[in-house]
Amino acid sequence: QVQLVESGGGLVQAGGSLRLSCAASGLTFNNYVMGWFRQAPGKEREFVAAIKWGFSRTYSDSVKGRFTISRDNAKNTVYLQMNSLKLEDTAVYYCAADRDTGGSVRLDRALVDYWGQGTQVTVSS
Length: 125
Description:
The protein is an all-beta fold. It contains no helices and eleven strands. The chain has strands at 3-7, 10-13, 18-25, 32-39, 46-51, 57-59, 67-72, 77-82, 91-99, 114-115, 119-124. The chain is globular, with a radius of gyration of 13 Å. The protein starts with a strand and ends with a strand. The model has no long low-confidence stretch (mean pLDDT 96).
C-alpha cells in the first residue's frame, strides 16, 4: 500500500519560511517523479514543483526563485523549502507521485498516481 505522508505545514508571517516534508512508502521511490501541488479555497489544485530521481527540477512561475524542491532517495523523502512566503501562498499543499516514464521532468495533475493527504500552510500579514 502506497502512502505519502506530508508534514511541516503551519502558520507563518509573510516573508517567513517553512519546509514541507513528504515521506513515501510502498513504492520504488527512485522510479517516481515526486512533487507538490497546492489548493487554495475556491481554486483548483495547481502545480508547484517537481523533481526526478536524478534531481532535475521544475517550478511554477509563481514560486520560482522562492521555493526549492529536493529529495533524499535514501530516505524516500521529498522536501519543499519555501522562502519569502506571500499571502497568496496560503493553501493546502499536497505531495504527489507519478511513475517516471522518461523525458523531461513534469507533473500533470490528471496523471498523478498517488496523493498525500495534504498539509495546511497559512501565511499571515
